[in-house]
Design a protein that fits this description.
The protein has 103 residues and is α/β, with parallel strands linked by helices. 40% of the residues lie in helices and 18% in strands. The termini are far apart.
């Protein structure tokens, strides 16, 4: 048995990676593979949604497998980057400093 397996994500899902459930199902499959080293090839992937990227990275981070990516297009890299960054929330007003009035 080979110690590493390469999966073409476009063949497993699509060239457009859109649904969170697709990422979840894909990682269920990855977890079922006996090999510990998994290489995911993103060659020819056209698009990725934020929800797919978030679920993909969440499942990857919790996986017992060593998952690496190759041939990742720039748009996919950018979406992974966006998802990995902590969200900065703009404070519109501080509720602790607002006094209520009775009309």
């Amino acid at each position: 048995m080979k110690s590493t397996i390469k999966l073409m994500i476009k063949e497993q899902i699509s060239v457009d990676l859109a649904l969170r459930d697709s990422a979840d199902t894909f990682f269920d499959y990855v977890e079922s593979i006996p090999q510990r080293e998994i290489v995911i090839d993103f060659n020819h992937v056209k698009s990725i949604s934020r929800s797919f990227a978030h679920e993909y990275l969440t499942r990857k981070n919790h996986s017992k497998k060593n998952v690496t990516e190759i041939n990742v297009p720039d748009n996919v890299k950018k979406m992974f980057y966006v998802v990995e960054q902590p969200a900065e929330k703009t404070l519109i007003f501080d509720l602790r400093k607002i006094k209520s009035i009775t009309l």
